[in-house]
Amino acid sequence: MTTPSVETLPSDSILDRLTSSDSEIKLKAIREVKNQIIGNRTKNLSYINLGAVPAVAAALSDSDSATNLIVQAAAALGSFACGVDAGVSAVLEAGAFPHLIRLLSSSEEKVVDAASRSLRMIYQSKLAPKYDFFKQENMQFLLSLLDSENENLTVLGAGIVIHSCETSAEQSILCYAGALEKLTSLLDGSLSQLDASLDSLAAIVKNNPEAGSKFVELDSGRALSSVIELTKDRYPQTKLLACLCLICLLGDSGQVGDEASFAFSRLIAEKEDLQKVAFDANAIDKFHGFLQKHPLKPKRLEGMFLALADLCAKLECCRSSFLSSEVLNLVVDALTHDDASVRTAACICLRSVSRSFKNLNAGRFMNERIVFPLVQLLSDLSTSVQVAALAAISNIVVDFMPHKSTFMQCGGVKELVQLTKAMDSSLRLNAVRALRNMLFLTDKMCKEVIFVELTASSMASLICDPESCVQVQALALVRNFVDGCVYSVEYAFAEDGIILDAVGKQLRKSSKVEIGIQGLYVLSNIASGNEFHKEAVMQLLFPQAENGSQSFFNQFLQSNDNHLRAAAIWVITNLTFPESPGAFGRIVNLRSLGIVSQIKKMFNDSCMDVKLRARIALGQIITFGDG
Amino acid sequence: MAASKKVITREEWEKKLNDVKIRKEDMNKLVMNFLVTEGFVEAAEKFRKESGTEHIDLATITDRMAVKKAVQSGNVEDAIEKVNDLNPEILDTNPQLYFHLQQQRLIELIRNGKIEEALEFAQEELAPRGEENQSFLEDLERTVALLAFEDVSNCPVGELLDISQRLKTASEVNAAILTSQSHEKDPKLPSLLKMLIWAQNQLDEKAAYPHIKDLSSAKLEDPVI
């Protein structure tokens, strides 16, 4: 920033007026300077350079100064110090600091307000003199500030703690003197008292288990519950401070640590900004440190794993930090913990970390040390452990070749297939999803293993499962099965085409968009096969007896859902591929059924993807002549 | 499908409403909150006497209203001094509000035809704010554009001279003062009415019942079946 020239200031000498012996002139001058510099950094610096600060400060030391003059001077000094380090040093050099402290004991409320506000500004800077808590009179003075009825004095007291409490000895003496109690009582106060209180509490309990437990025992835990309650506050700044306060408390060995990690987890769940704050506050390293303290109670482990899961839910930087530390090993060890909630939480944590595409790609998770215990958990006695394990596996098996064999060698496929037949629908759902993910871009060997284990008839019954969410996953699973080369398409025709029949049945029956989309992509993949495959799709979509314009397929083409229309056109594109010998015959059929005219209407579809697909399909159709 | 909705007659509805108890003190506090937040000092004082409802320091409302009134009548410099006397932190820690007040000062100079003074003020006071914060530049350019037109009331940025611009700035200052006094910047009553409308909309989907359409009379309309 450029420092503006002194010439921009009033030409009549302001310095003369500031030091005038006429108190009226002096008062006016100080007020003028104050109004010039408030909110105005450039003017502030100009007046500092001009040497206005010592002139204003002199008014404080003059015992003849009237109340109003002192108020104006103190306010001006506060503004000089507000956010400008040059201002802070000028105020300190001018010797104003002890005078401001003295004025805190004034009987005039306005003087006290102005002086405390100025001191607060000074204490926000690193340049402020360090407050010596070990001097008895200092501590007493601080406590009297915190005890005061005057809001500005209490906030100043908290500001001094925030500024000067750094070492564990300082934390301890503040605890011992009863500062925690006084600061906690400010939590019920105004917004600025609240923020100052949270900030100063964090300064006292930070990395100090003893101070932490003292805080927790305060008022039989009520102080802690207020902080936890504040994490739901609607002011982001307050939330943030409550969050930092909680991170400080995580290391506590008593009940507070348990509560803190659950509250922390609730606080940051789904909120990327707060996750970033926690990451910047080294939350992952802190958890790592806490997790190494043995032995930990199950409740504690569970809370920390859930908190880690929430931390790693969105941000890749958190996942990297998690994986580069030893935390992963600790979580993996917990997969075999005696307590079911700990096992569940460890799985949830793994699922969250394994969202990292980069690390999946590197095969970070596909090793026996992780996969073997996870597969074991598929036959756990607790359903919630099973579901959590399935969810983690669903992510991990997306892993690309050649790591998938590890999972098969551990007996994972057999366990997953077993769970697709479970009574509990959430188990079926997650098992089918895991298999579906495993089939994503996989090779012939893997497909073969899964197919033999799962069987065509089971797939057909999963497509017709009573729960529609399972139906969707089953169709998506078949879609991945028949994706790729011609041999893949053949799977749909096993056992007399029982799978294809089930797909057709669902497409006709279901009104759910997602089922339509997945079903159509199954057909689209099949239609990319050979002549026989394409004809089978034609037969399924347009049985001889049906009128084309009323066919369910025509309904899909006219759907409001962009994805559904796009999927429907994909099927037509694959059916009319010009190189295939039967294309002409199929196009004639599609024309007579009114499908071609329907696609023509989509030439300028509002959805870009649909428009593009429609144009490609029409391009293929027109190579055989237009009508 | 109106036919399948549950119908609640006026009698049933009024009976249900009678079962809901509202405390008088709560009502009074809501009214007081409205008067204080909106700055009706004298009404608040009268209401306090007649209803015995507690209130915040009325002197702070008087000060706040004085600031608001100064902006509304175009005495921006006076308003700034008053805000600074009230609490220097308000403008020291709120650059956006500070900029808007300075912008309003420039607008008033232009309105009064003090072109040279306006130019000088824009250069010395506003330009550095634009350097400090890019987001102010657009507003600054729009305001300075006023200087380029002979007939400012009919130019593309003429709305800056509208009384509504003053009111906008005034309400921004009002809100900042309220916040600095740890007071909510909006009264509670409008939120309650918003909730009423929302709840009615929700219920409309499920039932036909006596509905309040006109908020000012709060009259129950007969259910449409």
Report on the architecture of this protein.
Chain A is mostly helical and 627 residues long. Chain A contains 41 helices and no strands. Chain A has a domain at 1-129: Alpha Horseshoe (Leucine-rich Repeat Variant), CATH 1.25.10. In chain A, helix 26 packs parallel to helix 29 and helix 31 (456-463) packs parallel to helix 34 (494-509). The radius of gyration of chain A is 36 Å and the shape is elongated. Mean pLDDT of chain A is 86; it is low at 1-7. Chain B has 225 residues and is mainly alpha-helical. In chain B, the strands form two sheets. In chain B, strands 1-2 form a two-stranded parallel ribbon. Chain B has a two-stranded antiparallel sheet with strand order 3-4. In chain B, a hairpin with a 7-residue loop joins strand 3 (211-212) and strand 4. In chain B, helix 4 (58-72) runs antiparallel to helix 5 (76-86) and helix 7 packs antiparallel against helix 8. The longest helix of chain B has 18 residues, at 115-132. Chain B starts with 5 loop residues before the first strand and ends with a strand. The model of chain B has no long low-confidence stretch (mean pLDDT 87).
Strand and helix map with partners:
The complex is a heterodimer of chains A (627) and B (225).
Chain A: H1 14-18, H2 23-37, H3 41-50, H4 52-61, H5 67-81, H6 85-93, H7 96-103, H8 109-123, H9 136-147, H10 151-164, H11 168-177, H12 179-185, H13 191-205, H14 209-217, H15 222-230, H16 236-249, H17 255-268, H18 272-280, H19 283-291, H20 298-311, H21 316-324, H22 327-333, H23 340-353, H24 357-361, H25 368-377, H26 383-396, H27 404-409, H28 412-419, H29 425-438, H30 444-454, H31 456-463, H32 468-481, H33 486-489, H34 494-509, H35 513-527, H36 531-541, H37 552-557, H38 562-575, H39 583-592, H40 595-600, H41 608-622
Helix pairs in contact in A: 2-5, 4-5, 5-6, 5-8, 7-8, 8-10, 9-10, 10-13, 12-13, 13-16, 16-17, 17-20, 20-23, 23-26, 25-26, 26-29, 28-29, 29-32, 31-32, 31-34, 32-35, 34-35, 35-36, 35-38, 38-41
Chain B: E1 6-7, H1 10-18, H2 24-38, H3 41-51, H4 58-72, H5 76-86, H6 89-92, H7 95-111, H8 115-132, H9 137-145, H10 163-180, H11 188-204, E2 207-208, E3 211-212, E4 220-221
Helix pairs in contact in B: 2-3, 4-5, 4-10, 7-8, 7-10
